[in-house]
Specification:
The chain is mainly beta and about 400 residues long. The chain has a single domain, classed as YVTN repeat-like/Quinoprotein amine dehydrogenase (Methylamine Dehydrogenase, Chain H, 7 Propeller). The chain contains four helices and 33 strands.
């Protein structure tokens, strides 16, 4: 090997890592798991939502359920006039009414009347949103905003100052929307990211380097905004994970391991109260990333270790009001991490362990499963029970 070749190789070793964060992935050794057996039923749950009135709403592929820790009710197209029995999503508007997104449209449960109404346009007009038909509707986690959009327009209502804004959107398919305290972030199928200032309605593009657009284009991009205003972009079609500390900084790629790029997928991202970013994946377990130190911990299943995570195929992520991190496994139950104890506890269920959604009240955590119904966990004493739902309404 001549001197020129040696020089080029050394130069490549110095230059190539600079496009990534420089993070070292380590396997965590101080997080343990414990297994508690339980049984599940056979219902298939699509979504769970905990409303401000203390009720748990459970959407399924056939009907809607409302649970109050003591009794429950089932709702269908046949008894309350839902547009369809296939429930896709559930959220609450600033007035405290619950919106049900079905395969064929929305229905709203009006707490003041105790009935379901399908008059979406009339309801949106109460929030000064005069939107056309065939709009998608959503709300932020704090119920400060409600918004409606299609491929060309975004309408958003601020409940605090009772004002609404209308702003044009890019005429292209939307893949995700995330509402922060003062901005609405929108990702598109062509790999682009825009944000709208809620106060002014002004929309701007967030530039993404061309070298990453190819891996985002024609994929279901999702955007997440952390507590410090940092932007995160990811897609379930690969493990590309981009981070931007603020609007004035450059995008960085968080390297989750080159050897997993072709088959591993990012499922969800969320930040805990300690500032860690939790990332669950389809085949490589869970990652915990520290923004300041750029340290990445990877937790995977080890068959011979009793305290390892139940599986590497993860399906749901939820951080509750107490800062506990809940992780749903595909067919292998639930893990949860208590920050102060440095211990992750495991719930492994004997059947139907595909955890797809989480919701909580002050007392209970609810775990929705794919084919196994709903599990209720009492956070005070750790007891669990399976909730059975009849085929007819109470």
């Amino acid at each position: 090997m001549n001197k020129t070749t040696t020089y080029i190789l050394l130069l490549l070793l110095l230059v190539l890592p600079s496009s990534l964060t420089g993070a070292q992935i380590t396997e965590s050794e101080n997080i343990m798991f414990h297994k508690i057996p339980n049984k599940l039923s056979s219902q298939s749950i699509t979504s769970i939502f905990s409303d401000s009135h203390g009720y748990i709403w459970i959407g399924t592929t056939y009907g809607l359920n409302r649970y109050d820790s003591y009794s429950y009710q089932n709702y269908f197209n046949s008894n309350v006039g839902l547009p369809d029995n296939d429930i896709r999503d559930i959220f609450e508007d600033p007035d405290g009414n619950v919106w049900i997104n079905t395969r064929l449209g929305y229905s709203i449960f009006d707490y003041s009347l105790g009935t379901f109404k399908n008059d979406v346009k009339k309801r949106l007009k109460k929030f000064n949103i005069d939107s056309p038909s065939r709009m998608l509707v959503g709300s932020d986690n704090n119920r400060k905003y409600i918004y409606s959009y299609n491929t060309t327009q975004l309408f958003i209502y601020n409940h605090e100052n009772k004002t609404s804004k209308k702003t044009p959107l890019q005429p292209r398919p939307i893949t995700s929307i995330f509402v922060s305290d003062n901005r609405v972030y929108t990702t598109y199928l062509d790999g682009s990211l825009f944000y709208t200032e809620i106060s002014s309605g002004e929309t701007r593009r967030v530039p993404i380097p061309d070298k990453w657009v190819g891996e985002l284009k024609n994929r279901t991009i999702k955007v997440y905004v952390d507590n410090e205003g940092g932007l995160w972009l990811y897609t379930y079609q690969n493990t590309l994970l981009l981070y931007k500390k603020n609007h004035n900084s450059q995008w960085e790629e968080i390297d989750l391991g080159v050897d997993t790029r072709s088959f591993n997928r990012i499922k969800s991202i969320e930040q805990d109260k300690e500032g860690y970013i939790w990332i669950i994946s389809s085949h490589n377990g869970v990652y915990r990333y520290h923004i300041d130190t750029k340290k990445i911990e990877n937790m995977q299943n080890h068959y011979l270790q009793n305290h390892s995570i139940n599986s590497n195929n993860l399906s749901a992520l939820h951080i509750d009001k107490d800062g506990i991190v809940w992780i749903g496994n595909f067919k292998k139950g639930v893990n949860y991490y208590v920050p102060n104890s440095q211990v992750i506890l495991n719930y492994q269920y004997e059947r139907y362990n595909d955890i797809t959604a989480f919701a909580e009240t002050d007392r209970h955590l609810y775990q929705g499963t794919d084919g196994g119904g709903l599990i209720e966990l009492d956070k005070r004493d750790g007891t669990r029970k399976k909730l059975n739902f009849p085929a007819t309404s109470l």
